[in-house]
Amino acid sequence: MIRRSDFPKDFIFGTATAAYQIEGAANEDGRGPSIWDVFSHTPGKTLNGDNGDVACDHYHRYKEDIKLMKEIGLDAYRFSISWPRVMPDGKNINQKGVDFYNRLVDELLENDIVPFITLYHWDLPYALYEKGGWLNPDIALYFRAYATFMFNELGDRVKHWITLNEPWCSSFLGYFTGEHAPGHKDLQEALIAAHNLLRAHGHAVQAFREEVKDGKVGLTNVVMKIEPGDSKPESFLVASLVDKFVNAWYHDPVVFGKYPEEAVALYLEKGLQILDSDMNIIATPIDFFGVNYYTRTLVIFDPNNPLGFSYVQGDLPKTEMGWEIYPQGLFDMLVYLKERYRLPLYITENGMAGPDKLENGRVQDTYRIEYLEKHFEKALEAINAGVDLKGYFIWSLMDNFEWAYGYSKRFGIIYVDYNTQKRILKDSALWLKEFLKS
Ligand code: GBH
């Protein structure tokens, strides 16, 4: 059985959340609307019309939630800042919103929990969306100003910062499939958004170097293991193409200052120009990559699909999201990232949605324990294979607003009863507590 003591001494275990998914208090203390408020209030965009107005009410219950983290024995906590809470119009400061994050950070530190902050986990101020959002090149400078403000405000106490969460999702789910806010469906827009997201990242890293001398800054990407879904040689080719599009696209420019050539070709084809000066900003050196790993993705060659490929279902056991459980992919991708980019890594998200049932005050989520244990093992194998993996954040601390799926999917190690806001440690949290002592 895997034990905590098998991991390096300074390895940290934590949980992760995101502001819009847990905070609630959407209209309190001067918070402005984000693209996700508008999107989730638009009929048909989220399952059952769910939205983050109340969510887990973490804005009011953060002390209780930190107490639970402490009880489990977590070393660290990754959360995101709601840009429209601190800058309701995307530019001007809302002191009450800033105060919340000061209280949150102080409470974490008092409990010896190391804060990791994500600056952007998808909740763009709606006022900036009205100015063009991620399609407006100026967005990178607005983001830089917001980041600079937050570094100044919290950088004395917070030493670990992540600029963006999963720019692939913000650009492709937000602007191409329309599954996420702002719900556009335009390939050219997705390409522009992706580039502006990376520019915003680079600007924030530059600001970080000026403001926080003794901290670390990185970028978190969703890292997908892409495999061919059948044995046709064409399917191997599309798998490697899709791999470039979801993985290398968001890592290569940050380290090498170059998009993979397949991405460059797509920009050219769509008549978009990429400036060298932009690439220099994007390639401002970072300290680590955050890895969000959930599953593998199978693709096959499909001449009838305009993209040239289709997604197919695999036959491994699946989570409630329909995602295959594939721990080996975590090992493979950690080793791949290490070889290609030679940077320290954190797993900033890993976890599963389960068929959780609260029965007699207990949630027996043995499947989640098994999922986590297997992924912990693969993380450890990666460390032993020479990967500089420094920490592991479970998604998520508690059940929360799962974007387009609303409250129907539960990823937490803590169960949330949305009628009463009562929190109940699932068996996985109790298992983790024992693990962390071992
Ligand atoms: C994360 O994104 C988010 O950062 C977090 O906010 C969210 O709550 C969490 O995941 C859980 O969803 O169709 O089988 O090929 C995850 C991004 C993108 C990962 C789609 C899985 C495809 C699975 N996901 N991806 S599959």
List the helices and strands and how they pair.
Layout: E1 12-16, H1 19-22, H2 35-40, H3 58-72, E2 76-80, H4 83-86, H5 95-110, E3 114-120, H6 126-129, H7 139-154, E4 160-165, H8 167-175, H9 187-211, E5 216-222, E6 225-228, H10 233-256, H11 261-269, H12 276-282, E7 288-292, E8 296-301, E9 309-312, H13 327-341, E10 345-349, E11 358-359, E12 362-363, H14 366-384, E13 389-395, E14 414-417, E15 422-425, H15 427-437
This protein binds ligand GBH.
Protein model, in words:
It catalyses: Hydrolysis of terminal, non-reducing beta-D-glucosyl residues with release of beta-D-glucose. Pfam families: Glyco_hydro_1 (PF00232). This is Beta-glucosidase. InterPro entries: GH (IPR017853), GH_1_N_CS (IPR033132), Glyco_hydro_1 (IPR001360), Glyco_hydro_1_AS (IPR018120), Glyco_hydro_1_beta-glucosidase (IPR017736). The active site is at residue 349. The chain is of the alpha/beta class and 438 residues long. The chain contains 15 helices and 15 strands. The protein has helices at residues 19-22, 35-40, 58-72, 83-86, 95-110, 126-129, 139-154, 167-175, 187-211, 233-256, 261-269, 276-282, 327-341, 366-384, 427-437, and strands spanning 12-16, 76-80, 114-120, 160-165, 216-222, 225-228, 288-292, 296-301, 309-312, 345-349, 358-359, 362-363, 389-395, 414-417, 422-425. The chain has an 8-stranded parallel barrel with strand order 1-2-3-4-5-7-10-13, surrounded by 6 helices. A hairpin with a 4-residue loop joins strand 14 and strand 15 (422-425). Helix 7 packs parallel to helix 9 (187-211), helix 8 (167-175) runs antiparallel to helix 9 and helix 9 packs across helix 12 (276-282). The termini are close together. The mean pLDDT is 98. Bound molecules: ligand GBH. Ligand GBH is lined by residues 18, 165-166, 169, 222, 224, 292, 294-295, 297, 323, 349, 395, 402, 411.
